[in-house]
Amino acid sequence: MSYAFVQDVASSWEQYEYYAAALVDPAPTGLILHVAGPTDEGFRIIDVWESEEDWHDFQALRLAPAIAALGGPSRPAPTFRDLH
Q1: What is the C-alpha separation between 83 and 26, in angstroms, rounded?
Q2: Mean pLDDT per 10-residue run, the chain (84 residues)?
């Protein structure tokens, strides 16, 4: 079942651009769609994954280290949804 991830990050758009290339190039296994854009508070990320397992693999191996480099998790917490 497809899986969606949405997160607002309280960091600059420039920081997103710096880290984004390392996160999505090469494309992680299972990633269907990745979009991001600046917000008043930072930026928003929306991803669609082939499965929840693909998301968790990406989160552990690539995303968590990048978030730590940006200063830790942002608030509000990410939103996850199964897609039908």
Answers
A1: 24
A2: 85 83 84 92 90 92 77 60 63
